[in-house]
Amino acid sequence: MEYRALGGSGLHVSRIGLGTMAWGRDVEWPVVRELVHDFVEGGGNLIDTAPAYGGGVAEQMIGKLLATGIPRDSLAIATKAGFVIRGGRRIIDTSRAALLNDLEGSLRRLRTDHVDLWQVHAWGDAPIEETLSALDSAVSRGLARYVGVSNFVGWQTATAATWQEAMSGRTKLASVQVEYSLLARRAEVEVIGAAQYHTLGLLAWSAMGRGALTGRYRRGIPKDSRAASEHFGWFLEPYLQPRSRAVIDAVAKAADGLALTPAQVALMWVRDAPQVASALVGPRTPDHLAELLEAETKQLVPPIVAALDDISGGPNQFRITD
After folding, report:
1. Which pLDDT value is given to residue 243?
2. How far, in Å, CA of 98 to CA of 81, rounded?
3. Lowest mean pLDDT among 26-30, 109-113, 134-138
4. How far is residue 4's CA from residue 258's CA, in Å, rounded to a whole number?
5. Which of its termini does the chain have fewer beta carbons within 10 Å around, N or C?
6. What is the domain extent for residue 62?
7. Per-residue pLDDT tens over the stretch 132-173
8. SS3 sequence, the chain?
9. Is residue 192 domain-resident?
């Protein structure tokens, strides 16, 4: 699999990353083990997780993988801090103490002495200089190799990057992670521009529109689907509205004409978009992962890309055209 530098850093990540949000709830240990084995065999290295995923279970599974034979140096492990779910409530705490406590917990669960990428999961109420000082501390202590931010809007991304660039002793950000797909192109308004200016790699989560772009929901909601579950139904609901229909149908039509699957088309559009270092996917079965890995040797031709741009919101101002 092709690797890309994460922004201006020395970290190289596979251009498809494995997301773990559903691990421990919809994806159990035997399947996780098979998914990671197939992913690494296919050349992938980036696994993105967080303490909030499964209440820490996703990180525990990665730790179990490392303890049962997956070589540590075969993975680029990215985790986050500052966002947890307690008692059904979402809590954002980006204070220095909370972030470093989160990191210590992550390292215990991951059974490793460092993570390759540590990200602030969300913008919080703590002063940004306090939040970012935790990143500097983690890198200086060898607990994290590189750092980034997640779910920051454009001005927040630029503010954080500028603060870290202002003095030589601070650790420059390597990345910004944000939702980006044919159904979620808001990142093009300001985030991608900020990432480009500050040389940050973009990690695009939910590259397949939270699953809506796979075409699985074109004729309803299957009973065994993520959209039908109590815990993930809310996650899919915004993209199962009539306003998404034209984009989903266009992806399916392109897939039919190219002898591809809708998931492959949606993935390639994100994977090869400007500033994207890695498109994050969350397959729940080895067959779905195999389908996505098959897209590695394929590329969408410019007319198809332009047509998908047009139907999903208009031209991408960052795309270089011949």
Report:
1. 87
2. 8
3. 26-30
4. 26
5. C
6. 3-313
7. 999 999 999 999 999 999 999 999 999 999 999 999 999 999
8. CCEEECCCCCCEEECEEEECCCECCCECHHHHHHHHHHHHHCCCCEEECCCCHHHHHHHHHHHHHHHCCCCHHHCEEEEEECEEEECCEEEECCCHHHHHHHHHHHHHHHCCCCEEEEEECCCCCCCHHHHHHHHHHHHHCCCEEEEEEECCCHHHHHHHHHHHHCCCCCCCCCEEEEECECCECHHHCCHHHHHHHCCCEEEEECCCHHHHHHCCCCCCCCCCCHHHCCCCHHHHHHHCCHHHHHHHHHHHHHHHHHCCCHHHHHHHHHHCCCCEEEEEECCCCHHHHHHHHHHHHCCCCHHHHHHHHHHHCCCCCCCCCC
9. yes
CA-based radius of gyration for the chain: 19
pLDDT score recorded for residue 216: 85
Domain presence at residue 16: yes
Output the domain CATH number for residue 252: 3.20.20.100
User: What is the Cα–Cα distance from 198 to 167, expressed in whole angstroms?
Assistant: 15
Residues 287-291 have a mean pLDDT of 97
- How do residues 48-106 score in pLDDT, each as one tens digit? 999 999 999 999 999 999 999 999 999 999 999 999 877 778 899 999 999 999 999 99
The domain tally of the chain equals 1
* 321 occurs within a structural domain: no
User: Is residue 127 very low, low, confident or very high in pLDDT (cuts 50, 70, 90)?
Assistant: very high
319 within domain boundaries: no
CA distance 247 to 268: 15
Strands 201-205 and 276-281: parallel
175 band by pLDDT with thresholds 50, 70 and 90? very high
